[in-house]
Design a protein that fits this description.
The structure is a homodimer of 179-residue chains. The first copy, chain A, has 4 helices and 2 strands; from the N terminus they run αββααα. By secondary structure, the first copy, chain A, is mainly alpha-helical. In chain A, a hairpin with a 4-residue loop joins strand 1 and strand 2. Chains A, B: Homodimer and heterodimers.
Protein backbone atom coordinates (compact mmCIF):
# COMPACT_ATOMS: atom_id res chain seq x y z
CA UNK A 1 0.00 0.00 0.00
CA UNK A 2 2.82 2.34 0.96
CA UNK A 3 4.65 1.45 -2.19
CA UNK A 4 1.60 2.35 -4.26
CA UNK A 5 1.41 5.71 -2.52
CA UNK A 6 5.06 6.35 -3.37
CA UNK A 7 4.45 5.38 -6.98
CA UNK A 8 1.52 7.77 -7.06
CA UNK A 9 3.62 10.63 -5.77
CA UNK A 10 6.27 9.96 -8.42
CA UNK A 11 3.59 9.80 -11.12
CA UNK A 12 2.09 13.05 -9.87
CA UNK A 13 5.55 14.66 -10.02
CA UNK A 14 6.13 13.55 -13.61
CA UNK A 15 2.67 14.78 -14.61
CA UNK A 16 3.42 18.11 -12.94
CA UNK A 17 6.60 18.35 -14.99
CA UNK A 18 4.64 17.56 -18.15
CA UNK A 19 2.13 20.28 -17.23
CA UNK A 20 4.86 22.89 -16.72
CA UNK A 21 6.37 21.96 -20.09
CA UNK A 22 2.85 22.15 -21.58
CA UNK A 23 2.47 25.70 -20.21
CA UNK A 24 5.82 26.85 -21.63
CA UNK A 25 5.03 25.31 -25.05
CA UNK A 26 1.64 27.03 -25.15
CA UNK A 27 3.26 30.38 -24.37
CA UNK A 28 5.80 29.83 -27.18
CA UNK A 29 3.08 28.76 -29.60
CA UNK A 30 1.03 31.82 -28.69
CA UNK A 31 3.95 34.12 -29.45
CA UNK A 32 4.78 32.30 -32.68
CA UNK A 33 1.27 32.52 -34.11
CA UNK A 34 0.84 36.11 -32.92
CA UNK A 35 4.10 37.11 -34.61
CA UNK A 36 3.04 35.29 -37.78
CA UNK A 37 -0.34 37.02 -37.88
CA UNK A 38 1.19 40.46 -37.26
CA UNK A 39 4.05 39.99 -39.73
CA UNK A 40 1.66 38.87 -42.46
CA UNK A 41 -1.14 41.27 -41.56
CA UNK A 42 1.03 44.38 -41.77
CA UNK A 43 2.70 43.49 -45.06
CA UNK A 44 2.27 46.35 -47.50
CA UNK A 45 4.76 47.45 -50.13
CA UNK A 46 4.39 50.30 -52.59
CA UNK A 47 6.90 50.42 -55.39
CA UNK A 48 8.77 53.74 -55.83
CA UNK A 49 7.79 54.05 -59.50
CA UNK A 50 4.28 54.46 -60.91
CA UNK A 51 2.54 55.19 -64.17
CA UNK A 52 -0.10 57.83 -64.68
CA UNK A 53 -2.91 55.45 -63.75
CA UNK A 54 -1.46 52.76 -61.59
CA UNK A 55 0.59 52.71 -58.42
CA UNK A 56 2.22 49.35 -57.95
CA UNK A 57 1.30 48.13 -54.54
CA UNK A 58 1.36 44.69 -52.92
CA UNK A 59 -0.60 43.86 -49.80
CA UNK A 60 -1.24 40.56 -48.04
CA UNK A 61 -4.97 40.97 -48.77
CA UNK A 62 -4.32 40.80 -52.51
CA UNK A 63 -4.10 37.05 -52.15
CA UNK A 64 -7.05 35.38 -50.37
CA UNK A 65 -4.76 32.62 -49.10
CA UNK A 66 -2.81 35.15 -47.05
CA UNK A 67 -6.02 36.49 -45.53
CA UNK A 68 -6.85 32.93 -44.47
CA UNK A 69 -3.34 32.62 -43.05
CA UNK A 70 -3.82 35.73 -40.89
CA UNK A 71 -7.23 34.57 -39.67
CA UNK A 72 -5.99 31.05 -38.88
CA UNK A 73 -2.99 32.43 -36.98
CA UNK A 74 -5.15 34.87 -35.04
CA UNK A 75 -7.63 32.14 -34.03
CA UNK A 76 -4.91 29.71 -32.89
CA UNK A 77 -3.12 32.52 -31.09
CA UNK A 78 -6.25 33.48 -29.11
CA UNK A 79 -6.97 29.81 -28.40
CA UNK A 80 -3.47 29.20 -27.03
CA UNK A 81 -3.77 32.30 -24.83
CA UNK A 82 -7.15 31.13 -23.49
CA UNK A 83 -5.80 27.64 -22.82
CA UNK A 84 -3.06 28.97 -20.52
CA UNK A 85 -5.31 29.08 -17.39
CA UNK A 86 -6.31 25.46 -17.99
CA UNK A 87 -2.63 24.60 -18.32
CA UNK A 88 -1.93 26.26 -14.94
CA UNK A 89 -4.84 24.28 -13.49
CA UNK A 90 -3.09 21.11 -14.68
CA UNK A 91 0.13 22.11 -12.91
CA UNK A 92 -1.82 22.43 -9.65
CA UNK A 93 -4.03 19.37 -10.21
CA UNK A 94 -1.83 16.99 -12.10
CA UNK A 95 -4.36 14.13 -11.97
CA UNK A 96 -7.09 15.99 -13.90
CA UNK A 97 -8.35 13.88 -16.78
CA UNK A 98 -11.50 15.43 -18.28
CA UNK A 99 -9.91 18.83 -18.82
CA UNK A 100 -6.93 17.20 -20.53
CA UNK A 101 -9.31 15.44 -22.89
CA UNK A 102 -10.88 18.82 -23.73
CA UNK A 103 -7.42 20.20 -24.49
CA UNK A 104 -6.54 17.22 -26.75
CA UNK A 105 -9.85 17.78 -28.55
CA UNK A 106 -9.23 21.46 -29.28
CA UNK A 107 -5.47 21.08 -29.80
CA UNK A 108 -6.13 18.59 -32.59
CA UNK A 109 -8.60 20.94 -34.27
CA UNK A 110 -6.17 23.86 -33.96
CA UNK A 111 -3.36 21.72 -35.36
CA UNK A 112 -5.51 21.13 -38.44
CA UNK A 113 -6.29 24.85 -38.75
CA UNK A 114 -2.74 26.16 -38.38
CA UNK A 115 -1.32 23.46 -40.68
CA UNK A 116 -3.89 24.31 -43.36
CA UNK A 117 -3.15 28.05 -43.11
CA UNK A 118 0.62 27.66 -43.09
CA UNK A 119 0.75 25.10 -45.93
CA UNK A 120 -1.60 27.01 -48.21
CA UNK A 121 0.39 30.20 -47.62
CA UNK A 122 3.65 28.33 -48.20
CA UNK A 123 2.37 27.05 -51.55
CA UNK A 124 1.61 30.62 -52.65
CA UNK A 125 4.90 31.99 -51.27
CA UNK A 126 6.71 29.32 -53.28
CA UNK A 127 4.83 30.46 -56.41
CA UNK A 128 5.67 34.10 -55.68
CA UNK A 129 9.35 33.18 -55.48
CA UNK A 130 9.66 30.71 -58.32
CA UNK A 131 6.60 31.27 -60.49
CA UNK A 132 5.50 28.42 -62.73
CA UNK A 133 6.53 28.22 -66.35
CA UNK A 134 3.92 25.69 -67.43
CA UNK A 135 1.00 27.67 -66.04
CA UNK A 136 2.58 30.93 -67.20
CA UNK A 137 2.58 32.39 -63.70
CA UNK A 138 5.49 34.78 -63.27
CA UNK A 139 7.48 35.14 -60.06
CA UNK A 140 6.41 38.43 -58.47
CA UNK A 141 9.28 38.52 -56.01
CA UNK A 142 11.58 40.23 -58.47
CA UNK A 143 9.47 43.37 -58.23
CA UNK A 144 8.12 43.09 -54.72
CA UNK A 145 11.24 42.22 -52.83
CA UNK A 146 10.48 43.31 -49.28
CA UNK A 147 6.91 42.02 -49.66
CA UNK A 148 8.27 38.57 -50.41
CA UNK A 149 10.68 38.66 -47.49
CA UNK A 150 7.86 39.50 -45.12
CA UNK A 151 5.47 36.81 -46.33
CA UNK A 152 8.25 34.20 -46.19
CA UNK A 153 9.24 35.22 -42.67
CA UNK A 154 5.66 35.16 -41.44
CA UNK A 155 5.49 31.42 -42.19
CA UNK A 156 8.17 30.54 -39.64
CA UNK A 157 6.05 31.31 -36.57
CA UNK A 158 3.22 29.18 -37.93
CA UNK A 159 5.40 26.17 -38.63
CA UNK A 160 6.93 26.42 -35.16
CA UNK A 161 3.40 26.56 -33.70
CA UNK A 162 2.53 23.48 -35.75
CA UNK A 163 5.38 21.49 -34.23
CA UNK A 164 4.42 22.77 -30.77
CA UNK A 165 0.79 21.68 -31.17
CA UNK A 166 1.87 18.18 -32.20
CA UNK A 167 4.05 18.03 -29.07
CA UNK A 168 1.17 19.32 -26.91
CA UNK A 169 -1.17 16.57 -28.13
CA UNK A 170 1.44 13.90 -27.37
CA UNK A 171 2.18 15.36 -23.92
CA UNK A 172 -1.53 15.38 -23.03
CA UNK A 173 -1.88 11.79 -24.24
CA UNK A 174 1.11 10.73 -22.13
CA UNK A 175 -0.26 12.55 -19.08
CA UNK A 176 -3.65 10.86 -19.48
CA UNK A 177 -2.14 7.39 -19.93
CA UNK A 178 0.13 7.78 -16.85
CA UNK A 179 -2.73 8.59 -14.52
CA UNK B 1 -15.10 -6.26 -5.91
CA UNK B 2 -17.81 -7.86 -8.04
CA UNK B 3 -19.14 -4.47 -8.96
CA UNK B 4 -15.68 -3.40 -10.10
CA UNK B 5 -15.46 -6.52 -12.24
CA UNK B 6 -18.77 -5.63 -13.87
CA UNK B 7 -17.63 -2.07 -14.49
CA UNK B 8 -14.46 -3.45 -16.08
CA UNK B 9 -16.43 -5.66 -18.43
CA UNK B 10 -18.58 -2.69 -19.50
CA UNK B 11 -15.46 -0.57 -20.04
CA UNK B 12 -13.87 -3.35 -22.06
CA UNK B 13 -17.03 -3.52 -24.20
CA UNK B 14 -17.00 0.21 -24.90
CA UNK B 15 -13.30 0.08 -25.75
CA UNK B 16 -13.97 -2.82 -28.09
CA UNK B 17 -16.65 -0.74 -29.80
CA UNK B 18 -14.21 2.17 -30.11
CA UNK B 19 -11.62 -0.19 -31.62
CA UNK B 20 -14.07 -1.52 -34.22
CA UNK B 21 -15.01 2.05 -35.16
CA UNK B 22 -11.28 2.86 -35.29
CA UNK B 23 -10.74 -0.03 -37.73
CA UNK B 24 -13.60 1.09 -40.02
CA UNK B 25 -12.34 4.69 -40.00
CA UNK B 26 -8.81 3.59 -40.90
CA UNK B 27 -10.15 1.56 -43.80
CA UNK B 28 -12.15 4.58 -45.04
CA UNK B 29 -9.15 6.88 -44.62
CA UNK B 30 -6.97 4.43 -46.53
CA UNK B 31 -9.40 4.37 -49.45
CA UNK B 32 -9.80 8.16 -49.41
CA UNK B 33 -6.09 8.90 -49.56
CA UNK B 34 -5.47 6.13 -52.10
CA UNK B 35 -8.21 7.55 -54.34
CA UNK B 36 -6.77 11.05 -53.92
CA UNK B 37 -3.26 9.93 -54.84
CA UNK B 38 -4.46 7.98 -57.88
CA UNK B 39 -6.83 10.71 -59.10
CA UNK B 40 -4.10 13.34 -58.85
CA UNK B 41 -1.26 11.09 -60.02
CA UNK B 42 -2.97 10.08 -63.25
CA UNK B 43 -4.06 13.60 -64.24
CA UNK B 44 -2.83 14.36 -67.73
CA UNK B 45 -4.63 16.45 -70.33
CA UNK B 46 -3.44 17.24 -73.83
CA UNK B 47 -5.37 19.94 -75.65
CA UNK B 48 -6.70 19.00 -79.09
CA UNK B 49 -5.01 21.95 -80.81
CA UNK B 50 -1.27 22.57 -81.08
CA UNK B 51 1.14 24.92 -82.81
CA UNK B 52 4.13 23.88 -84.81
CA UNK B 53 6.40 23.82 -81.78
CA UNK B 54 4.25 23.32 -78.75
CA UNK B 55 1.65 20.79 -77.74
CA UNK B 56 -0.43 22.14 -74.90
CA UNK B 57 -0.34 19.59 -72.18
CA UNK B 58 -1.12 19.77 -68.47
CA UNK B 59 0.09 17.18 -65.98
CA UNK B 60 0.02 17.11 -62.20
CA UNK B 61 3.81 17.10 -62.17
CA UNK B 62 3.91 20.54 -63.78
CA UNK B 63 3.18 22.00 -60.37
CA UNK B 64 5.50 20.85 -57.55
CA UNK B 65 2.70 21.28 -55.02
CA UNK B 66 0.70 18.55 -56.71
CA UNK B 67 3.68 16.22 -56.62
CA UNK B 68 3.88 16.84 -52.87
CA UNK B 69 0.16 16.15 -52.65
CA UNK B 70 0.55 12.76 -54.34
CA UNK B 71 3.51 11.82 -52.13
CA UNK B 72 1.73 12.90 -48.92
CA UNK B 73 -1.39 10.95 -49.89
CA UNK B 74 0.63 7.86 -50.77
CA UNK B 75 2.52 7.95 -47.45
CA UNK B 76 -0.63 8.40 -45.35
CA UNK B 77 -2.39 5.72 -47.37
CA UNK B 78 0.38 3.18 -46.77
CA UNK B 79 0.53 4.14 -43.08
CA UNK B 80 -3.22 3.65 -42.64
CA UNK B 81 -2.98 0.25 -44.33
CA UNK B 82 -0.09 -0.78 -42.08
CA UNK B 83 -1.95 0.40 -38.99
CA UNK B 84 -4.90 -1.93 -39.68
CA UNK B 85 -3.31 -4.99 -37.99
CA UNK B 86 -2.65 -2.90 -34.87
CA UNK B 87 -6.27 -1.81 -34.97
CA UNK B 88 -7.41 -5.45 -35.10
CA UNK B 89 -5.08 -6.17 -32.16
CA UNK B 90 -6.94 -3.44 -30.24
CA UNK B 91 -10.29 -5.07 -30.99
CA UNK B 92 -9.00 -8.32 -29.47
CA UNK B 93 -7.10 -6.72 -26.58
CA UNK B 94 -9.15 -3.67 -25.75
CA UNK B 95 -7.04 -2.78 -22.70
CA UNK B 96 -3.82 -2.26 -24.64
CA UNK B 97 -2.27 1.11 -23.79
CA UNK B 98 1.26 1.34 -25.20
CA UNK B 99 0.25 0.45 -28.72
CA UNK B 100 -2.54 3.04 -28.60
CA UNK B 101 0.03 5.66 -27.62
CA UNK B 102 2.11 4.65 -30.65
CA UNK B 103 -0.95 5.10 -32.86
CA UNK B 104 -1.71 8.56 -31.39
CA UNK B 105 1.92 9.50 -32.03
CA UNK B 106 1.90 8.52 -35.70
CA UNK B 107 -1.70 9.60 -36.33
CA UNK B 108 -0.81 13.12 -35.22
CA UNK B 109 2.19 13.23 -37.55
CA UNK B 110 0.11 11.88 -40.44
CA UNK B 111 -2.61 14.44 -39.71
CA UNK B 112 0.01 17.17 -40.13
CA UNK B 113 1.27 15.63 -43.37
CA UNK B 114 -2.11 15.12 -45.05
CA UNK B 115 -3.36 18.55 -43.96
CA UNK B 116 -0.24 20.20 -45.38
CA UNK B 117 -0.57 18.35 -48.69
CA UNK B 118 -4.30 18.96 -49.07
CA UNK B 119 -4.17 22.65 -48.09
CA UNK B 120 -1.22 23.48 -50.31
CA UNK B 121 -2.89 21.73 -53.24
CA UNK B 122 -6.19 23.49 -52.48
CA UNK B 123 -4.43 26.87 -52.58
CA UNK B 124 -3.06 26.08 -56.05
CA UNK B 125 -6.37 24.64 -57.28
CA UNK B 126 -8.06 27.86 -56.19
CA UNK B 127 -5.48 29.85 -58.18
CA UNK B 128 -6.01 27.62 -61.22
CA UNK B 129 -9.75 28.30 -61.04
CA UNK B 130 -9.78 31.98 -60.16
CA UNK B 131 -6.34 33.25 -61.02
CA UNK B 132 -5.16 36.41 -59.30
CA UNK B 133 -5.47 39.81 -60.89
CA UNK B 134 -3.01 41.62 -58.65
CA UNK B 135 -0.20 39.13 -59.20
CA UNK B 136 -1.14 38.82 -62.88
CA UNK B 137 -1.65 35.06 -62.64
CA UNK B 138 -4.28 33.94 -65.10
CA UNK B 139 -6.80 31.20 -64.39
CA UNK B 140 -5.68 28.15 -66.38
CA UNK B 141 -8.96 26.28 -65.94
CA UNK B 142 -10.51 27.92 -68.98
CA UNK B 143 -8.13 26.00 -71.22
CA UNK B 144 -7.52 22.89 -69.16
CA UNK B 145 -11.04 22.01 -68.19
CA UNK B 146 -10.86 18.30 -67.42
CA UNK B 147 -7.45 18.80 -65.78
CA UNK B 148 -9.06 21.21 -63.35
CA UNK B 149 -11.95 18.91 -62.61
CA UNK B 150 -9.55 16.10 -61.76
CA UNK B 151 -7.31 18.13 -59.47
CA UNK B 152 -10.37 19.53 -57.65
CA UNK B 153 -11.89 16.09 -57.18
CA UNK B 154 -8.64 14.62 -55.91
CA UNK B 155 -8.77 17.00 -52.93
CA UNK B 156 -11.98 15.48 -51.56
CA UNK B 157 -10.41 12.17 -50.49
CA UNK B 158 -7.64 14.03 -48.66
CA UNK B 159 -9.98 16.28 -46.74
CA UNK B 160 -12.11 13.30 -45.74
CA UNK B 161 -8.94 11.53 -44.55
CA UNK B 162 -8.05 14.67 -42.57
CA UNK B 163 -11.37 14.59 -40.70
CA UNK B 164 -10.94 10.84 -40.14
CA UNK B 165 -7.46 11.25 -38.65
CA UNK B 166 -8.74 13.92 -36.23
CA UNK B 167 -11.48 11.48 -35.15
CA UNK B 168 -8.93 8.65 -34.79
CA UNK B 169 -6.75 10.71 -32.45
CA UNK B 170 -9.75 11.58 -30.29
CA UNK B 171 -10.96 7.96 -30.21
CA UNK B 172 -7.51 6.73 -29.13
CA UNK B 173 -7.37 9.40 -26.43
CA UNK B 174 -10.83 8.40 -25.16
CA UNK B 175 -9.86 4.71 -25.18
CA UNK B 176 -6.69 5.43 -23.20
CA UNK B 177 -8.47 7.59 -20.65
CA UNK B 178 -11.25 4.98 -20.11
CA UNK B 179 -8.84 2.20 -19.32
Amino acid sequence: MEREEGSRVVRGGVNKGISVFDFVLRLMGFMGTLAGAIAMGTTDETLPFFTQFIRFRARYSDLPTFTFFVVANAIVSVYLLLSLPLSIFHIVRSKAKGSRMILIFFDTGMLGLITAGASAAAAIVYLAHKGNVRANWLAICQQFNSFCERISGALIGSFVAMAILILLILLSAIAISRR
